[in-house]
Amino acid sequence: MKKNLRTIFQYLFFLGLGIFFAWLSLKNLNKENTDQIKTAFREARHWLAIPVFLILIGSHWIRAIRWRLLIEPMGYKPSTANSFFAVMIGYLVNMGVPRLGEIVKCTVLSRYEKIPADKLIGTIILERLIDALTLLVVFGITILLQPQLYSQILDAFFNGPEAAPDKKISTLLVSSLILAALLLLTGLWMLIRRKKLKDLLSLFLKIYRSVMQGVSSIRHLKKRGLFLFYTVLLWSFYLAGGYIGFMAFRETEIYGIKEAFTILSAGSIGMIASPGGIGAYAYLIEKTMQLYGLHYTIALAFGWILWLAQTAVILLGGIFSFGALPYFNKKDIYEKG
Question: Residue 112 CA to chain centroid, in angstroms?
Fold first, then answer.
């Protein structure tokens, strides 16, 4: 019962966080801004929705193929179609209840491919760990391409655009405050949970071992080269989606690969911060694009249109998969029979 209440509380907290970010994004919107957004949408290159849609669907298809590579060493070879349908259904469920989609994803594939669900759960944990490591690489590339970006982000969030230079909070001070806050939260956690320093070190060691286990698992895959290729291809598709999105508005067509890496990094955080990225994704993209001098209204429109594109793909793909899954397998059984 306590676990269920904690799950409900966590869901409501992150949903509330998403709604809060949506409010932050839209609170300064006035009639003039609304008119500017309508004009931007009216003059946008709407045909670009087609390649973006195909790229996003393609990324989910690649994720399904990559998942199969993790399943095959266990002696099972699920069909690509069933793997894809399970991935899309999982994404759809995750939009409503975070993390439940991963369980549903495994349950669906288990039902149609006769694979024990508990074995599939292990592949999902490994997949998420690999994605986390890949995201860290993306963050690293983003900072390497734009070394000044870190200080710009801190300045944008902690100093107003009209703040006088002598009244601005320094990057070093902000970094120190963030570090102090993290140490304080860690101390409170240890106090509440009655943990000692050795328990904290044990937790870090456990995380380190999990990361090493994930890296080791890749090394022992029979098709590790193919797995790494699909991983790079998957994140390249994510990157391409944002890059092509720049071409939708004439105000954003000047941006290139560096900015695409930045919105991929910011957007990934947004998708984690709230269910389906609602509010958080658009807000972080909006703030990120303002760092590059994009006007508030266009940055807002750009953030929301990218989120809507991804949400539409998940909704359409998930609903289609619900209907196609039993039909495809009924047809497949009929042909085998």
Answer: 27
Token reading at 129: 């760990």
- Please report, as a single letter, which amino acid is at residue 30: N
Beta strands in 24-128 (DSSP E): none
Question: Mind listing the pLDDT tens digit for each residue in 261-282?
Answer: 999 998 888 888 777 888 888 8
Residue 24: inside a domain: no
Return the structure tokens found at 210: 């999990």
Residue numbers of the domain that contains 141: 45-336
> pTM here?
0.80
Q: CA angle, 257 as apex, 288 and 140 as ends, to 5°?
A: 70
Cβ–Cβ under 8 Å, residues 40 and 249? yes
pLDDT in tens, 13-55: 666 767 777 777 777 777 777 877 788 778 788 888 899 999 9
Question: In total, how many domains does the chain have?
Answer: 1
Quote the radius of gyration of the chain (alpha carbons, Å): 22
Asked if the structure places residue 191 within a domain, the reply is yes
In a domain, residue 332? The reply is: yes
Helix (H, G, I), strand (E, B) or coil at 214: helix
Q: Could you tell me if residue 38 is inside a domain? A: no
